[in-house]
Amino acid sequence: MPQLPLIEPNTALFLDFDGTLADLAPRPELVQVEPELVGTLRTLYQRLDGALAVISGRPVVELDHFLQPLRLPAAGVHGAEFRTDGGMVSKTPAPGLEPLIPHLEALVRAYPALMLERKSVAVAIHYRQAPELAGVVDAAVTDVMRHAVGLEALPGKMVVEIKPAGVDKGDAIAAFMKSPPFAERVPLFAGDDMTDEPGFAAVRKLGGLGVLVGQRQTLAGTSVPGPAALRSWLHRSARALDDAARAAGKPGAVPHTTTS
User: Fold this and answer.
1) pLDDT band at residue 1, thresholds of 50, 70 and 90?
2) What are the pLDDT digits (tens) for 49-61?
3) Which of 16, 18, 192, 193 is catalytic?
4) Is 16 a known active-site residue?
5) Residue 27 exposed, middle or buried by CB count within 10 Å (0-12, 13-18, 19+)
6) Second label for 236, Cα 20 to 30 Å away, from 38, 116, 171, 247?
7) What is the pTM of this model?
8) What CATH superfamily classification does 98-164 receive?
9) What dotted CATH number matches 11-92+167-247?
10) How many CB atoms lie within 10 A of CB 16?
């Protein structure tokens, strides 16, 4: 794959969170954010005139928690949640989800190594602590989804999610690209999981670049070995953009921040 260039001033930057900005952890709540990362994201947001969004499987409220005090544009739950700069979070309804929960809770009681994660409009069954249960999880999800309406199962790294059908990270990126400050820019999306492939397809269609964090078959145009390498690239890009902007005497956009 070709070498990853530094971020250009005309980039629309889209970033996955788990496995991309942050290293994966045994449980979602145990993820740690590198202290320098928040400052780098703030600089990138400023120097890209606000054209930076986080595109994640997590709910937007969790992204805000990990990246506080920043409140960046974001798509959560694989695009089922959507927030523009400073706006309210819009959510795709998932009315058929609640009847499935008791069956999934019973599965986790039967296999305590599994973890059930409730999200705003989705649910995830993690088996990172017991990879041998992948077949059990797949069979259980197939069974509960047999009569589900308006939902779909989405496999990921040691996880299967049940979420609203018809939305994905590619749709979220395409929606961002229709409006300022993202419109008329060249999109770049970095992600690590199979759930990021629709995002890679979307940026390719728009003439941009997908960056895979890791190594596997992918639609991405280039790759880096892991999250540490991706963060290093972000740090270097932020410094280069900031130096160039300061030399030109340009002010930067100011990202929204939390008040707590």
Assistant:
1) low
2) 999 999 999 999 9
3) 16
4) yes
5) exposed
6) 171
7) 0.93
8) Trehalose-6-phosphate phosphatase related protein; domain 2 (3.30.70.1020)
9) 3.40.50.1000
10) 26
